[in-house]
Amino acid sequence: MKVAALKSPGGLDKIVIEERPDPVAGAGEILVRVRASSLNFHDFAVVAGMIRTPDGRIPMSDGAGEVVGVGEGVTRFKVGDHVLSTFFPNWAAGGPRLDRMIGVPGDNADGFAAELVAMPATAFTRLPKGWSMAQAATLPCAALTAWRALMVEARIRPGDVVLTQGTGGVSIFALQLAKAAGATVISTSSSAEKLARLKALGADHLINYKEDSSWGQTAAKLCERGGVDAVVEIGGPGTMGQSIHASKIGGHISLIGVLTGVSGEVPTALAMSKNVAIQGITVGSRQDQEDMIAAIEANGIVPVIDSTFPLDQIAAAFAHQISQKHFGKICLEF
């Protein structure tokens, strides 16, 4: 089979396409012919060497494909079924726990930049009905992160106000899910063109954060209750201060990304006085994913895909991600 493998110490020029023996499904496992994957910041951190992995690691945490083999004892799936990976294969349900958050494909174990994978059947769910493989491959990391942030942890309700940042996969899914839940959405971007596309997706209020350095205060002024109910925080230290300014008293901030760095100054006194809940979010469980798929089907949500690349152009796909010119998800199709 063909795979993309990462040579140490990492870097786009260290991704090589090579042939490896076809895997075989063992007891409790299924053999999946991978048809699509999608790029996340986590995958970039792996291939760039920011997350260290063994030499020869096969990257990519997300995968959708067809079952072509079933190991002994598997009853969950059969040959011919279309399946979707889970980011945390050992996290079936409940809250986050260390033992549930190990074994991430493409990081702790080989991932989905391969034509075939053999993994436990419990590491997969079904696809949304009628979706293509590429569409489904956008879900396990980005969409599920947005789902858990808003629906599981912030528990948004109709009439709530949600603030999203930028036009990456998590932020766009957050916009779509929030609108499906009956929330008002305030979206930020630095591009007038991207803001217009966010408006077309349903964003109620738009803020260009390059033109408005106090965009958090601006967002708060748009709310009758003095601030937003939930923030999908993807920037980290460079944006956290404005997210706190945007929040209402008792608001919820889902800390999802660290695009502006891994540490920095945060207005802790303001966060304290506002009684803001700041919660780290790292994707979710298989049960969360199954619940999200049911909600997506019920609401007719369709993912936004920017572009697709073949497996042997995986480095070009990451270069496109780095350029930040994309709107929505970048996918690999095999």
Question: Describe it for me?
Answer:
The N and C termini lie close together (12 Å). The strands form 3 sheets. Strands 3, 4, 5, 6, 7, 14 and 15 form a 7-stranded mixed beta sheet that branches. A 6-stranded parallel beta sheet has the order 10-9-8-11-12-13, with helices on both faces. It is built from 10 helices and 15 strands. It is 28% helix and 25% strand. The protein is α/β, with parallel strands linked by helices and 334 residues long.
- Identify the quaternary structure here: single chain
Structural class: alpha/beta
Shape by Cα distribution: globular
Gyration radius over CA: 20 Å
User: What is the level-2 CATH architecture name of the largest domain?
Assistant: Alpha-Beta Complex
CATH class descriptor of the largest domain: Alpha Beta
What is the secondary structure topology, with strand pairs?
Blueprint: E1 2-6, E2 15-19, E3 29-38, H1 41-47, E4 64-70, E5 82-85, E6 116-120, E7 124-126, H2 133-136, H3 139-153, E8 161-165, H4 169-180, E9 184-189, H5 192-200, E10 205-208, H6 215-221, E11 228-233, H7 237-246, E12 247-255, H8 268-273, E13 277-280, H9 286-299, E14 305-310, H10 314-323, E15 329-333
Parallel strand pairs: 8-9, 8-11, 9-10, 11-12, 12-13, 14-15
Antiparallel strand pairs: 1-2, 3-4, 3-6, 3-15, 4-5, 5-7
